[in-house]
Write the structure tokens for this entry.
Amino acid sequence: MSRYGDFWRRARRHPGFVVGATLSGLMVLAAIVSLFWQPWPPAEIDIPGKLQPPGAAHWLGTDSLGRDIASQLLVGAQSSLVVGVVAVGIGLVVGVALGALASARRGWVEELVMRFSDFTFAFPALLSAIMLGAIAGPGLLTGIVAIGIFNIPVFARLTRGAANAVWAREYVLAARAAGKGGWQITLDHVLPNIANVLIVQATVAFATAILAEAALSYLGLGTQPPQPSWGRMLNEAQAQMFQAPLLAVWPGLAIVLAVLGLNLMGDGLRDLLDPKLARRR
């Protein structure tokens, strides 16, 4: 059996991975479907039809402005997915490059990269979004940049630590003795051997990015109207908490399921990609 065939055979037997992949797949499916179809226009206001309970016309009811909740949830998945993919991509590309550079060069280069990581850690995503919002104004791009900057030191530290362990292995020492340069060894031996760790961290960072985007939108620093956002839906539901509590339940449930799915999938990937754990299954 091929390597990939064995992986999928074990993946199907891992309940956490199956549940996590299913929930994550549903979020992606919702975002894709909303590009072509929504039950109602998500920004359409219908004051006479406000605060309707779930029914045949509006599957999850309407909000205080008569907007369809189901449509807003579907389109809101787009914002979460875009922020997660781009912000994690920024952290992954820049952070891995810095971590690999620190591990390959060592000395003052490694010290400089690590001090840069420490400095960046002093500005969490929320604080960065506030500063960027004051300069460029709040919006989806502000949230993406703030979360992406926060992810850079996370991936840099992880890459540097995992790469240092690989640089001490015998096959890397043999490659250096054969005359291979630092970057060639990094590309041929180091990065392929730490890819599993980076993949797992990317799924965890994706879940964190969704939470951060929801928090920023809740505070008015993330996705701006009329683009729907799960975090802003929670903010708008506060005024009707006792009159229509379901307004807060639906976006809260969407955030919980998305984050739970990504965390379960990350835990499953950790088990499946770890050779020691894989042999036990």
